[in-house]
Amino acid sequence: MRRLLSRLPLDPYIAALLGTVLLAALLPARGTAATTVDGASTGAVALLFFLYGARLSTREAMDGLRHWRLHLTVLACTFAVFPLLGLASRGLVPYVLTPQLQTGLLFLCLVPSTIQSSIAFTSIARGNVAAAICAGSFSSIVGIVLTPLLAAALLGNNAVGFSLDSLLSVVLRLLVPFVAGQLLRRWIGGFITRHKKVLGYVDRGSILLVVYAAFSEGVVRGIWHQVTPLRLVALLGVEAVLLAVMLTFTGLGTRWLGFGREDRIAITFAGSKKSLAAGLPMATVLFGAQAGLMVLPLMLFHQLQLMVCAVLAKRYGRQSEVTAPAGLAAGAPAAAG
């Protein structure tokens, strides 16, 4: 079954996410059930960011600062170039995108970079895996603070349910658990490492719960009547262009800045990707009842980036095997997760 799933063009976890969306459409939580699901979702978000904080090694993050040019480049791509492109997408309203989908697209551009998939693709491509680990970690840390601030500055009143109270919720539900995880890492870090696989299922299960809660509330409020199949196709096309622009920008820009091949690979994958795991919980806190519609662009982009970057990583890896000495062709083992 695992081999069969690995051959499918759709990532199994994305399939689970889509199944959760379908479940929310058919059986949305209402009344007391909705209150229970909302409370469980709030707890799941706090748990997610607590585990993020407990996993991140402060020593590794500080060691990574020595490669500051690479990390600044990734941060600039993630929190400067992406948001500028998101702002430019306003010119597509209302002819290509609805205002709500454009807001979701802009939010996608404010989300931090991924960690796990960036590491995996960088490893497959024979890039600088250590740099990818640090770059993804820095992006996640910075994103906890910077993403809500950018959302406040760039989304403003366009985001239904977004307010200063939302920023306070981010602090209480995201930043506080993250800091608590960091502070307690000294005592629970070993447990986290030993049970990494099991806690990975907890991560994914928590995100599925968050997705169900967000989309279920959207179904109850009738917001999905605002989206047509034609608009979804248009959104996917816009996101394909967005990903192509960022991959081209990171590829050519890193050459112009004089980075070596391994560093260029790490920057390309870390600087062109967005984190579904971080973005979904943030959206539920920032957008409330409108979160389901707001995270739709992020979910589509996540699947698109996985498919495209998997192809690129394999191509870079084959190129490396051709140019590298035979003893080094195998390279570093691919990172899981």
UniProtKB/TrEMBL annotation:
Pfam family, one: SBF_like
Alphabetical UniProt keywords: Membrane, Transmembrane, Transmembrane helix
GO cellular component: plasma membrane
UniProt key word Membrane: yes
InterPro entries xrefs: Na+/solute_symporter_sf, Put_Na-Bile_cotransptr
Taxonomic superkingdom: Bacteria
Membrane spanning stretches: 41-58, 70-89, 101-122, 129-155, 167-184, 205-224, 230-254, 275-300
Protein's recorded name: Bile acid:sodium symporter
Species this protein is from: Streptomyces morookaense (Streptoverticillium morookaense)
Lineage: Bacteria, Bacillati, Actinomycetota, Actinomycetes, Kitasatosporales
